[in-house]
Specification:
By secondary structure, this protein is mainly α. The protein is 44% helix and 0% strand. Helix 1 runs antiparallel to helix 2. The chain starts with 24 loop residues before the first helix and ends in a 13-residue tail after the last helix. 7% of the residues are buried.
């Protein structure tokens, strides 16, 4: 049985930050999905609220949103 060596990925998961539109719907969906994952983990006790705030700040930076953006989750 042969092993596939070709790239079967549909495309890049994230664009380079300089070329990404931070308000693109796909970028916002990725941001909100990531945020929901960590919120759920916080609710389950994996992270505490302080750690969640730090994670939220990291995600804001990763997806190019400022903390005062209407699309970013606020404390």
């Amino acid at each position: 049985m042969a092993t596939k060596t070709a790239n079967t990925a549909a495309g890049h998961v994230m664009l380079h930050p300089d070329r990404r539109n931070k308000y693109d719907p796909n970028n916002l969906i990725l941001y909100r999905t990531s945020l929901a994952l960590y919120r759920n983990m916080t609710d389950q006790g994996v992270f505490n609220e302080d750690e969640y705030c730090h994670i939220r700040t990291i995600l804001n930076k990763k997806y190019g949103l400022s903390s005062d953006s209407i699309f970013a989750e606020c404390a």
